[in-house]
Amino acid sequence: MEIPAELLQQIHKSGYLRVHIRPTEFHKARLRDTTHCHSVILQAAVATNGWQYPIVMDTVDERGPDWIAGKATLDYLIEYWRFFQSGQFVHHLALREDHWGRLGLYHPQFFVPAKDRKYLSVTQAISTVTDVIEFGARLAYRGVLAPRALVSIEFHGMAGRELTYMTPGRRLPDSFWFQDESVRLEGSYKIEELIGRPRDIAIQLF
Fold first, then answer.
1. How many CB atoms lie within 10 A of CB 200?
2. Per-residue confidence of the chain (206 residues) as pLDDT tens digits?
3. Distance (Å, whole) CA 177 – CA 160
4. Which pick of 40, 72, 129, 179 has the fewest CB atoms within 10 Å?
5. Which of 70, 7, 10, 74 is nearest to 44 (CA)?
6. CA distance from start to end of the chain
């Protein structure tokens, strides 16, 4: 999948996630056309923390022969996704924690980042994974992923990154950080399972 090089470089210059959701069986036109793709993804988008997952506008940013694409470059919300008529969804999004620091959005009473230290917020990670699974469940409910869905969530730029709550009053019992550069969470799910228990699946992925 070819992504605009400049935006991809912006996303990948620090920590980022790559999400891939697809049905196990390939059918080129599970969705009628690109207009149908846009309608489905608007309906399936998850509203959380004042934003959508994924961020979807009323008009499509890009349109190909069998896909649509959306993007965001709003301060710490930097992402690019494509949704295909076949039901495949691919999403690259920058880790917000890195851009919070770049923009000076940490409140000193809540969290003071150490110099040259990288972080992963426990609550942000849980929220994002839960949103991904809920979004997949909504696609499944609309018949996009039958008979079975594959979900992959990859965290990149992780080596040396510390896990923390980044909020007052909550602390992990010890210091934890990632040793590997990337971490992958993935699973294969029956449609009925994905629709019926998305939150349980999100918890199990951790």
1. 11
2. 556 788 888 899 889 999 999 999 999 999 999 999 999 999 999 998 777 899 998 888 899 999 999 998 887 789 999 999 999 999 999 998 887 766 555 555 555 666 778 888 888 899 999 999 999 999 999 999 999 999 999 999 999 998 888 666 667 777 788 999 999 999 999 999 999 999 999 999 87
3. 6
4. 179
5. 70
6. 28
Whether 94 contacts 24, CB under 8 Å:
no
Q: Indicate the pTM of the whole model.
A: 0.90
Locate the DSSP E strands across 42-171: 46-48, 51-53, 62-63, 67-74, 77-84, 89-94, 119-121, 148-156, 162-164
Element housing 21 (H / E): strand 16-23
